[in-house]
């Protein structure tokens, strides 16, 4: 097919105010936050959440295993 | 992204112009009398496609790479061969859903539909009983719609509710959400009532642009709450755009998803019951690319100029407020259908949250005033003007008393 479809320019989500911004400058147009720093902070918090969820899942599996052994 | 429904188009689909999702009006016959019906449905079209023509069209859709076919009307189940159409769509390897008012979607009818391969049903519910019955034009239609929703889940199909957001339904959305969750809905598609067809005759039903300031936080709140309760809110393409809730309301899997412009004619298109192909099912016939009785679907899809309108749109095609908007390059003035229904052309869309926020910051708001009636035909529209006025009650009201006309 000769003519391709339109692909819109992607925007960046500011992790400070959750508004989308055109990625043409380092700070958020709306809240003034440093977009890279806010992203780093967000990633760190996400990693902590994932770690906590994994811990919880492992603890629940251990508990389930112990409960299963007690029943048998 | 493997978890996304097949009707979601990815970047590759956009680039390659795969018509991922087709909305197909298989008849204009309808058993409701909705005040906002864009197609002014009721009687079937004189020259609707025959069964054989429908089956041939299904093969052509599959050949183009279509993954999802949504059957609409009118009321699709009023066509005697609708289950044959469902079966053929499924046999061709595509998903098939039905959008319906649900007035006569009995358990028996839906059991047969499930057997034919129908996978999902979207039932239109436009508010609580009194409002729904009035807007849909048939007393008792609310209860029948809810029963159709329950019948859908009972028969193992995905149950979606479609709700028109207008001045009557907006105050009831919260209560309605509780009811549809109880009735088994897992998806809730919300669209703002567009000033087309019957809705053009009832401007009092239409939201005003400044009401986006109330609507968007409400939708964001309902989105978050709904997700926790197993209901996935899906904003239609005429809901947006940007502002602080964009990510929340449009979040399918990851929160960086945002509105990226109208994709009519690139990854979706609409079919009218007589075989007319349009880039968007809601648009009037000036956007028709041809008829499958005259040309193959592939030829229409690949060459018809009217189907190219969104991919060729540039910021220079925008006008009014949208022309100089911060988001212009990405947004391209939002929903083509909404703009066209208001002004007879795309490129300026006042039904926008970001725009309403910016107006509000300046102590202003936009109000739509109808200046010309629609002519009474399917998919017709009137004409509206935008009046910019001071936000009532603001201290500097007096200084901005003069009205400024900026659109229409």
Characterization of the model:
- The complex is a heterodimer of chains A (72) and B (408).
- The relative contact order of chain A is 0.10.
- With 72 residues, chain A is mostly helical.
- Chain A has a two-stranded antiparallel ribbon.
- Chain A is 51% helix and 6% strand.
- Chain A is elongated, with a radius of gyration of 22 Å.
- In chain A, a hairpin with a 6-residue loop joins strand 1 (12-13) and strand 2 (20-21).
- With 408 residues, chain B is of the alpha/beta class.
- Helices cover 30% and strands 17% of the residues of chain B.
- Chain B contains 13 helices and 13 strands.
- Chain B has helices spanning 11-16, 51-64, 82-91, 107-116, 129-136, 141-154, 173-182, 212-228, 246-250, 297-303, 328-331, 336-343, 353-361, and strands spanning 21-25, 68-72, 95-100, 120-124, 158-165, 187-192, 232-235, 268-271, 276-278, 288-291, 364-372, 383-390, 404-407.
- In chain B, the strands form 2 sheets. A 10-stranded mixed β-sheet of chain B has the order 7-6-5-4-3-2-1-8-9-10.
- In chain B, helix 2 (51-64) packs parallel to helix 3.
- The longest helix of chain B is centred in the middle third of the chain and has 17 residues, at 212-228.
- Chain B is globular, with a radius of gyration of 20 Å.
- The chains are: A mainly alpha (72), B alpha/beta (408).
- Chain A binds chain B through residues 1, 3-13, 17-20, 22, 29, and chain B through 11, 13-17, 242-244, 246-248, 255-256, 258, 260-261, 263, 266-267, 302, 308, 310-313, 326-327, 329-332.
């Amino acid at each position: 097919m000769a003519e391709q479809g339109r692909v819109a320019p992607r925007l960046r989500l500011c992790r400070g105010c959750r508004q989308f911004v055109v990625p043409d400058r380092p700070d958020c147009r709306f809240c003034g936050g440093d977009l890279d720093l806010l992203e780093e902070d967000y990633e760190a918090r996400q990693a902590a959440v994932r770690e906590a969820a994994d811990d919880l899942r492992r603890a629940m599996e251990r508990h389930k295993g112990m409960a299963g052994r007690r029943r048998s | 992204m493997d978890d996304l429904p097949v009707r979601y188009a990815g970047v590759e689909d956009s680039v390659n112009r795969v018509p991922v999702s087709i909305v197909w009006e298989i008849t204009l016959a309808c058993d409701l009398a909705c005040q906002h019906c864009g197609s002014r449905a009721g009687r079937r079209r004189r020259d609707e496609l025959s069964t054989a023509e429908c089956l041939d069209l299904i093969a052509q859709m599959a050949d183009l790479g279509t993954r999802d076919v949504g059957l609409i009307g009118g009321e699709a189940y009023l066509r005697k061969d609708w289950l044959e159409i469902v079966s053929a769509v499924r046999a061709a390897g595509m998903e098939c859903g039905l959008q319906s008012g649900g007035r006569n979607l009995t358990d028996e009818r839906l059991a047969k539909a499930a057997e034919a391969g129908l996978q999902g049903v979207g039932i239109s519910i436009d508010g609580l009983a009194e409002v729904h019955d009035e807007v849909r034009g048939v007393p008792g239609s609310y209860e029948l719609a809810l029963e159709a929703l329950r019948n859908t889940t009972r028969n193992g199909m995905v149950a979606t509710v479609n709700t028109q957001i207008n001045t009557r339904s907006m105050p009831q959305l919260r209560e309605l959400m509780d009811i549809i969750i109880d009735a088994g809905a897992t998806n809730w598609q919300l669209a703002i009532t567009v000033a087309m067809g019957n809705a053009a005759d009832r401007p009092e039903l239409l939201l005003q642009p400044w009401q986006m300031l109330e609507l968007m936080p409400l939708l964001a709140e309902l989105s978050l709450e709904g997700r926790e309760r197993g209901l996935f809110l899906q904003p239609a393409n005429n809901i947006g755009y940007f502002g602080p809730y964009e990510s929340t309301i449009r979040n399918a899997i990851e929160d960086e998803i945002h509105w990226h412009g109208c994709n009519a004619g690139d990854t979706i298109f609409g079919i009218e019951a007589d075989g007319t192909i349009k880039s968007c099912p809601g648009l009037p016939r000036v956007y028709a690319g041809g008829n499958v009785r005259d040309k193959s679907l592939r030829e229409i899809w690949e060459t018809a100029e009217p189907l190219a309108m969104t991919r060729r749109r540039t910021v220079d095609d925008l006008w009014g407020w949208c022309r100089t908007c911060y988001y212009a390059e990405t947004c391209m003035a939002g929903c083509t259908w909404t703009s066209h229904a208001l002004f007879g052309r795309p490129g300026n869309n006042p039904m926008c949250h970001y725009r309403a926020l910016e107006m509000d910051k300046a102590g202003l708001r936009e109000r739509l005033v109808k200046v010309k009636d629609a002519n009474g035909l399917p998919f017709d529209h009137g004409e509206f003007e935008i009046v910019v006025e001071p936000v009532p009650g603001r201290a500097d009201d007096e200084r901005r008393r003069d009205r400024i006309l900026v659109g229409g």
